């Protein structure tokens, strides 16, 4: 599967998750962005330019600044809380039932929110993620969180989790880019109604001189980053590029007024080498 039949046409277009909650196709990731005014300003810029989804995590150690930014853009009347979609994740050290419940409360407190839109298990740590998932199910049943999902889960992790889960994950957020296309995982998730989401869609800048991407970008008068992000969306993948630079935030969001051909989509997918810039989910040692 390389192309979706429901391609988003605007930055605020949403995909409906299997529990009925809708989330934006495009969001702002804040991985490795330090607490402080630069992050607050980046989120303000993103909201001003149409972004409505912000993705953070406990381990990023920046939830307080994300919360400050949310507070400011709401107070300034740029957006309402209901228009925003806020995601965070429970870290590996907190993957127990009570520990996960406590971690959720800690994230809410730092973010200054009463409820998250999406809460994810960050990594599939062997022997721990099922208890954490039970905690997420509790939070969901109590109405404390609008949707629950996982991150960095491979097919066998999902199969194992779903053997005992009462509630199926709505999202699987994974490393995904032209050198790691995750086609088989996408097909599995689609079969089970789980939405795939891409982190590191630009491979931390490692694809910006690739000749195939350069040629396609030249043909469209676009940047390579825009071509990659468009490829993601046309595959039906929720995407969260990271940037704190306003010009790049704007550029990353300006991908809804052109389309890639089926041939171009295949050319980009053919770049795949199953190469990761992040850890292997089967060998978690942190």
CATH topology: TIM Barrel
Helix content: 25-40%
Structural class category: alpha/beta
How many strands in all? 10
Radius of gyration: 18 Å
**What is the global morphology?**
globular
CATH architecture annotation: Alpha-Beta Barrel
Q: Output the number of helix runs.
A: 10
- H/E series: EEEHEHEHEHEHEHEHHEHH
Q: Give the full name of the CATH homologous superfamily.
A: NADP-dependent oxidoreductase domain
Number of folding domains?
1
Portion of residues in beta strands equals 5-15%
User: What is the CATH C level class, in words?
Assistant: Alpha Beta
The neighbouring-strand order within the major sheet is 3-4-5-6-7-8-9-10
Uncertain runs with pLDDT below 50, 5 residues or more? 1-5
Mean pLDDT reading: 96
Distance between the termini: 33 Å
The description of the largest β-sheet is:
8 strands, parallel
GO molecular function: oxidoreductase activity, acting on the CH-OH group of donors, NAD or NADP as acceptor
Family: Belongs to the aldo/keto reductase family.
InterPro entries: AKR (IPR020471), AKR5G (IPR044500), Aldo/ket_reductase_CS (IPR018170), NAD(P)_OxRdtase_dom_sf (IPR036812), NADP_OxRdtase_dom (IPR023210)
Pfam families: Aldo_ket_red
């Amino acid at each position: 599967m390389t192309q979706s039949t429901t391609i988003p046409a605007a930055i605020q277009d949403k995909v409906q998750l299997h529990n009925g909650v809708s989330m934006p196709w495009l969001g702002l990731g804040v991985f490795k962005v330090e607490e402080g005014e630069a992050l607050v300003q980046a989120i303000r810029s993103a909201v001003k330019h149409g972004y409505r989804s912000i993705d953070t995590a406990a381990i990023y150690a920046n939830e307080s600044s994300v919360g400050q930014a949310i507070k400011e853009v709401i107070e300034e009347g740029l957006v309402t809380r209901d228009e925003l979609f806020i995601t965070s994740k429970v870290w590996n050290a907190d993957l127990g039932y009570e520990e996960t419940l406590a971690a959720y409360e800690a994230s809410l407190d730092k973010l200054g929110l009463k409820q998250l839109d999406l809460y994810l298990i960050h990594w599939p740590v062997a022997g721990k993620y099922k208890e954490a998932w039970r905690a997420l199910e509790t939070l969901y049943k109590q109405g404390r969180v609008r949707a629950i999902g996982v991150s960095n889960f491979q097919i066998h992790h999902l199969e194992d989790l779903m053997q005992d889960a009462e509630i199926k994950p709505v999202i699987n957020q994974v490393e995904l880019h032209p050198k790691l296309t995750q086609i088989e995982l996408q097909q599995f998730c689609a079969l089970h109604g789980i939405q795939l989401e891409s982190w590191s869609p630009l491979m931390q800048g490692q694809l910006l001189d690739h000749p195939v991407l350069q040629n396609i970008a030249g043909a469209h008068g676009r940047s390579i980053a825009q071509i990659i992000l468009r490829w993601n969306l046309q595959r039906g993948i929720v995407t969260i590029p990271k940037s704190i630079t306003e010009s790049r935030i704007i550029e990353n969001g300006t991908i809804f007024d052109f389309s890639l051909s089926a041939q171009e989509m295949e050319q980009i997918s053919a770049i795949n080498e199953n190469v990761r810039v992040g850890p292997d989910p089967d060998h978690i040692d942190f």
